[in-house]
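Re: the 328-residue chain
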Amino acid sequence: MTHDAVHLADVQRRHRIFQVWERARHRQIHWLVECIAEMMGVFFYVYAGVGSTAAFTIANLTGQPTVGSLFHVGFAYAFGIILAIVVCAPTSGGHFNPCVTIAFAVYRGFPWKKVPMYIFAQVLGGYLSCLIIYLQYYEVVGHLETALKAKGVYDAINFTPQGVAGIFALYAPTGSNLFYVWVNEFVSDFFLGLAIWACLDPTNFFTPPPVAPFIVAFAYACVIWGYAPVGLAANTARDVGGRFMAMSIWGSRASGGSYAAIAALTNIPSMLLAATFYEFFFTDSSRVVPRAHREFLAGHKAHMEHSSSVELREDLAGRHSPTAGEKS
Protein backbone atom coordinates (compact mmCIF):
# COMPACT_ATOMS: atom_id res chain seq x y z
CA MET A 1 0.00 0.00 0.00
CA THR A 2 2.98 2.32 0.36
CA HIS A 3 3.07 3.06 -3.37
CA ASP A 4 -0.28 4.85 -3.03
CA ALA A 5 0.95 7.12 -0.26
CA VAL A 6 0.52 10.86 -0.74
CA HIS A 7 3.06 12.89 1.19
CA LEU A 8 2.61 16.47 2.33
CA ALA A 9 5.43 17.42 -0.04
CA ASP A 10 3.32 16.12 -2.94
CA VAL A 11 0.42 18.50 -2.28
CA GLN A 12 1.81 21.45 -0.36
CA ARG A 13 5.02 23.37 -0.89
CA ARG A 14 6.38 24.59 2.43
CA HIS A 15 8.44 27.74 2.89
CA ARG A 16 12.09 27.22 2.07
CA ILE A 17 13.19 27.68 5.68
CA PHE A 18 11.05 24.68 6.69
CA GLN A 19 12.41 22.61 3.81
CA VAL A 20 15.98 23.29 4.99
CA TRP A 21 14.98 22.50 8.58
CA GLU A 22 13.35 19.20 7.58
CA ARG A 23 16.46 18.10 5.71
CA ALA A 24 18.54 18.84 8.79
CA ARG A 25 16.21 17.04 11.18
CA HIS A 26 15.98 13.95 8.97
CA ARG A 27 19.74 13.73 8.55
CA GLN A 28 21.12 14.80 11.92
CA ILE A 29 18.77 15.67 14.76
CA HIS A 30 15.58 13.68 14.39
CA TRP A 31 16.28 12.24 17.86
CA LEU A 32 15.98 15.77 19.26
CA VAL A 33 12.63 16.33 17.57
CA GLU A 34 11.38 13.02 18.96
CA CYS A 35 12.50 13.98 22.48
CA ILE A 36 10.80 17.37 22.20
CA ALA A 37 7.60 15.59 21.16
CA GLU A 38 7.86 13.27 24.18
CA MET A 39 8.50 16.24 26.46
CA MET A 40 5.51 18.14 25.08
CA GLY A 41 3.28 15.07 25.27
CA VAL A 42 3.95 14.72 29.00
CA PHE A 43 3.55 18.48 29.30
CA PHE A 44 0.01 18.25 27.85
CA TYR A 45 -0.94 15.33 30.06
CA VAL A 46 0.41 16.90 33.26
CA TYR A 47 -0.74 20.44 32.46
CA ALA A 48 -4.33 19.28 32.11
CA GLY A 49 -4.37 16.91 35.07
CA VAL A 50 -2.33 18.85 37.60
CA GLY A 51 -4.11 22.07 36.67
CA SER A 52 -7.43 20.45 37.53
CA THR A 53 -5.91 19.03 40.72
CA ALA A 54 -4.75 22.53 41.68
CA ALA A 55 -8.24 23.96 41.30
CA PHE A 56 -9.76 21.06 43.26
CA THR A 57 -7.23 21.11 46.11
CA ILE A 58 -7.17 24.88 46.54
CA ALA A 59 -10.96 25.01 46.47
CA ASN A 60 -11.12 22.42 49.27
CA LEU A 61 -8.54 24.31 51.33
CA THR A 62 -10.46 27.56 50.93
CA GLY A 63 -13.89 26.12 51.61
CA GLN A 64 -15.17 26.02 48.01
CA PRO A 65 -15.85 22.29 47.51
CA THR A 66 -18.04 22.83 44.45
CA VAL A 67 -15.17 24.14 42.29
CA GLY A 68 -13.81 20.69 41.41
CA SER A 69 -13.90 17.00 42.20
CA LEU A 70 -12.04 13.77 41.60
CA PHE A 71 -14.37 13.27 38.64
CA HIS A 72 -13.14 16.51 37.09
CA VAL A 73 -9.51 15.54 37.73
CA GLY A 74 -9.99 12.20 35.97
CA PHE A 75 -11.57 13.87 32.96
CA ALA A 76 -8.78 16.47 32.84
CA TYR A 77 -6.09 13.81 32.74
CA ALA A 78 -8.06 11.95 30.06
CA PHE A 79 -8.34 14.99 27.82
CA GLY A 80 -4.68 15.81 28.44
CA ILE A 81 -3.71 12.33 27.24
CA ILE A 82 -5.90 12.68 24.15
CA LEU A 83 -4.25 16.00 23.30
CA ALA A 84 -0.79 14.57 23.93
CA ILE A 85 -1.39 11.67 21.56
CA VAL A 86 -3.05 13.77 18.86
CA VAL A 87 -0.44 16.55 18.90
CA CYS A 88 2.80 14.71 19.67
CA ALA A 89 2.47 10.97 18.99
CA PRO A 90 2.86 11.26 15.19
CA THR A 91 6.40 12.55 15.78
CA SER A 92 7.72 10.38 18.62
CA GLY A 93 5.43 7.37 18.72
CA GLY A 94 3.56 8.66 21.76
CA HIS A 95 5.17 6.87 24.71
CA PHE A 96 4.83 9.71 27.27
CA ASN A 97 5.70 7.33 30.09
CA PRO A 98 9.04 5.64 30.87
CA CYS A 99 7.36 2.28 31.45
CA VAL A 100 5.92 2.39 27.91
CA THR A 101 9.33 3.29 26.46
CA ILE A 102 10.96 0.38 28.29
CA ALA A 103 8.21 -2.03 27.21
CA PHE A 104 8.64 -0.88 23.61
CA ALA A 105 12.37 -1.56 23.85
CA VAL A 106 11.70 -5.07 25.20
CA TYR A 107 8.87 -6.09 22.85
CA ARG A 108 8.71 -3.73 19.87
CA GLY A 109 12.33 -3.23 18.85
CA PHE A 110 12.60 0.34 20.11
CA PRO A 111 16.33 1.22 20.19
CA TRP A 112 17.76 0.92 23.69
CA LYS A 113 20.09 3.84 23.00
CA LYS A 114 17.04 6.10 22.76
CA VAL A 115 15.51 4.92 26.05
CA PRO A 116 17.52 7.26 28.36
CA MET A 117 16.86 10.23 26.04
CA TYR A 118 13.12 9.56 25.95
CA ILE A 119 12.90 9.12 29.73
CA PHE A 120 14.85 12.32 30.38
CA ALA A 121 12.57 14.24 27.99
CA GLN A 122 9.45 12.78 29.62
CA VAL A 123 10.55 13.70 33.15
CA LEU A 124 11.55 17.17 31.96
CA GLY A 125 8.08 17.63 30.48
CA GLY A 126 6.51 16.78 33.83
CA TYR A 127 8.86 19.13 35.67
CA LEU A 128 8.27 22.09 33.34
CA SER A 129 4.52 21.58 33.31
CA CYS A 130 4.30 21.58 37.12
CA LEU A 131 6.59 24.60 37.32
CA ILE A 132 4.43 26.59 34.91
CA ILE A 133 1.26 25.63 36.79
CA TYR A 134 2.93 26.77 40.01
CA LEU A 135 3.76 30.12 38.40
CA GLN A 136 0.17 30.50 37.19
CA TYR A 137 -1.08 29.84 40.72
CA TYR A 138 1.81 31.65 42.44
CA GLU A 139 -0.19 34.41 44.13
CA VAL A 140 -3.03 32.09 45.11
CA VAL A 141 -0.59 29.57 46.58
CA GLY A 142 1.28 32.31 48.47
CA HIS A 143 -1.89 33.69 50.07
CA LEU A 144 -3.08 30.18 50.89
CA GLU A 145 0.18 29.16 52.53
CA THR A 146 0.13 32.31 54.65
CA ALA A 147 -3.41 31.53 55.79
CA LEU A 148 -2.57 27.91 56.62
CA LYS A 149 0.49 28.96 58.63
CA ALA A 150 -1.64 31.47 60.55
CA LYS A 151 -4.03 28.64 61.45
CA GLY A 152 -1.12 26.42 62.52
CA VAL A 153 -2.01 23.58 60.13
CA TYR A 154 0.47 24.21 57.32
CA ASP A 155 3.14 21.68 58.41
CA ALA A 156 0.52 19.02 59.11
CA ILE A 157 -1.09 19.01 55.66
CA ASN A 158 1.30 20.58 53.15
CA PHE A 159 3.11 17.35 52.21
CA THR A 160 -0.02 15.25 51.92
CA PRO A 161 -2.49 14.74 49.05
CA GLN A 162 -4.60 17.52 50.56
CA GLY A 163 -1.76 20.05 50.82
CA VAL A 164 -0.40 22.67 48.44
CA ALA A 165 2.75 20.66 47.72
CA GLY A 166 0.47 17.66 47.13
CA ILE A 167 -0.84 19.37 44.02
CA PHE A 168 2.50 18.83 42.30
CA ALA A 169 4.20 15.93 44.09
CA LEU A 170 2.36 12.72 44.87
CA TYR A 171 2.07 11.54 48.48
CA ALA A 172 0.47 8.54 50.11
CA PRO A 173 -2.54 9.30 52.33
CA THR A 174 -1.54 10.01 55.92
CA GLY A 175 -1.24 6.82 57.98
CA SER A 176 -1.37 4.49 54.97
CA ASN A 177 0.18 1.04 55.00
CA LEU A 178 2.65 1.26 52.11
CA PHE A 179 2.19 -2.42 51.21
CA TYR A 180 -1.46 -1.82 50.35
CA VAL A 181 -0.53 1.38 48.54
CA TRP A 182 1.94 -0.64 46.46
CA VAL A 183 -0.70 -3.28 45.69
CA ASN A 184 -3.10 -0.56 44.60
CA GLU A 185 -0.44 0.97 42.34
CA PHE A 186 0.63 -2.35 40.83
CA VAL A 187 -2.87 -3.58 40.01
CA SER A 188 -3.95 -0.20 38.60
CA ASP A 189 -0.83 -0.03 36.42
CA PHE A 190 -1.37 -3.61 35.23
CA PHE A 191 -4.92 -2.64 34.21
CA LEU A 192 -3.53 0.33 32.27
CA GLY A 193 -0.83 -1.79 30.68
CA LEU A 194 -3.36 -4.25 29.29
CA ALA A 195 -5.45 -1.41 27.88
CA ILE A 196 -2.41 0.16 26.21
CA TRP A 197 -1.16 -3.11 24.78
CA ALA A 198 -4.63 -3.93 23.42
CA CYS A 199 -4.65 -0.60 21.58
CA LEU A 200 -1.24 -1.44 20.12
CA ASP A 201 -2.42 -4.81 18.82
CA PRO A 202 -2.77 -4.39 15.01
CA THR A 203 -5.20 -7.31 14.83
CA ASN A 204 -7.68 -5.78 17.28
CA PHE A 205 -10.78 -4.82 15.27
CA PHE A 206 -12.21 -2.94 18.26
CA THR A 207 -9.36 -0.44 18.51
CA PRO A 208 -8.74 1.26 15.15
CA PRO A 209 -5.94 3.84 15.44
CA PRO A 210 -8.24 6.91 15.67
CA VAL A 211 -10.06 5.35 18.65
CA ALA A 212 -6.97 4.28 20.60
CA PRO A 213 -6.25 7.71 22.19
CA PHE A 214 -9.72 7.76 23.76
CA ILE A 215 -9.46 4.19 25.08
CA VAL A 216 -6.08 4.85 26.71
CA ALA A 217 -7.25 8.21 28.05
CA PHE A 218 -10.35 6.87 29.73
CA ALA A 219 -8.51 3.82 31.06
CA TYR A 220 -6.38 6.37 32.94
CA ALA A 221 -9.51 8.23 34.02
CA CYS A 222 -11.00 5.00 35.38
CA VAL A 223 -8.06 4.26 37.67
CA ILE A 224 -7.99 7.89 38.84
CA TRP A 225 -11.71 7.84 39.65
CA GLY A 226 -11.51 4.49 41.42
CA TYR A 227 -8.10 4.26 43.05
CA ALA A 228 -6.39 7.65 43.35
CA PRO A 229 -7.58 8.09 46.96
CA VAL A 230 -5.48 5.06 47.98
CA GLY A 231 -2.36 6.51 46.32
CA LEU A 232 -1.72 6.41 42.59
CA ALA A 233 1.03 7.69 40.29
CA ALA A 234 0.67 5.56 37.11
CA ASN A 235 3.38 7.49 35.29
CA THR A 236 7.02 7.87 36.34
CA ALA A 237 7.41 11.06 34.29
CA ARG A 238 4.49 12.73 36.03
CA ASP A 239 5.64 11.54 39.46
CA VAL A 240 9.38 12.24 39.22
CA GLY A 241 8.94 15.48 37.27
CA GLY A 242 6.38 16.77 39.77
CA ARG A 243 8.42 15.64 42.76
CA PHE A 244 11.58 17.36 41.51
CA MET A 245 9.58 20.51 40.91
CA ALA A 246 8.12 20.36 44.45
CA MET A 247 11.59 19.84 45.89
CA SER A 248 12.80 22.86 43.92
CA ILE A 249 10.20 24.97 45.76
CA TRP A 250 9.89 23.35 49.20
CA GLY A 251 13.20 21.51 49.57
CA SER A 252 13.86 17.95 50.72
CA ARG A 253 10.69 17.88 52.84
CA ALA A 254 8.76 17.44 49.58
CA SER A 255 10.62 14.23 48.67
CA GLY A 256 7.83 11.89 49.74
CA GLY A 257 9.94 9.47 51.77
CA SER A 258 9.56 5.74 51.11
CA TYR A 259 6.45 6.28 49.02
CA ALA A 260 8.52 8.04 46.33
CA ALA A 261 10.07 4.74 45.22
CA ILE A 262 6.64 3.08 44.98
CA ALA A 263 5.22 5.94 42.94
CA ALA A 264 8.19 6.22 40.59
CA LEU A 265 9.07 2.58 39.96
CA THR A 266 6.05 0.30 40.41
CA ASN A 267 4.51 1.07 37.02
CA ILE A 268 7.61 -0.24 35.18
CA PRO A 269 7.46 -3.93 36.24
CA SER A 270 3.68 -3.76 36.19
CA MET A 271 3.68 -2.59 32.56
CA LEU A 272 6.22 -5.25 31.58
CA LEU A 273 4.08 -7.92 33.25
CA ALA A 274 0.97 -6.64 31.47
CA ALA A 275 2.76 -6.64 28.10
CA THR A 276 4.08 -10.17 28.73
CA PHE A 277 0.62 -11.35 29.78
CA TYR A 278 -0.97 -9.85 26.64
CA GLU A 279 1.72 -11.28 24.34
CA PHE A 280 1.31 -14.78 25.79
CA PHE A 281 -2.46 -15.00 26.11
CA PHE A 282 -4.06 -12.45 23.77
CA THR A 283 -1.68 -11.94 20.82
CA ASP A 284 -2.34 -14.32 17.91
CA SER A 285 -0.30 -14.13 14.71
CA SER A 286 -3.05 -15.93 12.78
CA ARG A 287 -5.47 -13.06 13.22
CA VAL A 288 -6.21 -10.72 10.33
CA VAL A 289 -4.92 -7.15 10.37
CA PRO A 290 -7.93 -4.93 9.54
CA ARG A 291 -7.79 -2.22 6.90
CA ALA A 292 -7.53 0.69 9.37
CA HIS A 293 -4.42 -0.82 10.95
CA ARG A 294 -2.92 -1.71 7.57
CA GLU A 295 -3.28 1.90 6.44
CA PHE A 296 -1.77 3.11 9.71
CA LEU A 297 1.24 0.80 9.43
CA ALA A 298 1.67 1.48 5.72
CA GLY A 299 1.59 5.21 6.34
CA HIS A 300 4.37 4.98 8.91
CA LYS A 301 6.44 2.81 6.59
CA ALA A 302 5.92 5.26 3.70
CA HIS A 303 7.02 8.14 5.92
CA MET A 304 10.21 6.36 6.90
CA GLU A 305 10.98 5.46 3.28
CA HIS A 306 10.25 8.98 2.04
CA SER A 307 12.39 10.70 4.67
CA SER A 308 15.21 8.23 3.98
CA SER A 309 14.98 8.80 0.24
CA VAL A 310 15.11 12.58 0.70
CA GLU A 311 18.23 12.16 2.82
CA LEU A 312 19.77 9.86 0.19
CA ARG A 313 19.01 12.30 -2.64
CA GLU A 314 20.61 15.11 -0.66
CA ASP A 315 23.71 13.01 -0.03
CA LEU A 316 24.03 12.07 -3.69
CA ALA A 317 23.51 15.66 -4.80
CA GLY A 318 26.25 16.77 -2.42
CA ARG A 319 28.64 14.09 -3.62
CA HIS A 320 28.12 14.83 -7.33
CA SER A 321 27.91 18.63 -7.18
CA PRO A 322 30.76 20.21 -9.17
CA THR A 323 33.70 21.65 -7.27
CA ALA A 324 35.05 25.13 -7.93
CA GLY A 325 37.77 23.64 -10.11
CA GLU A 326 35.27 21.60 -12.14
CA LYS A 327 33.08 24.67 -12.68
CA SER A 328 36.03 26.61 -14.08
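The radius of gyration is 23 Å.
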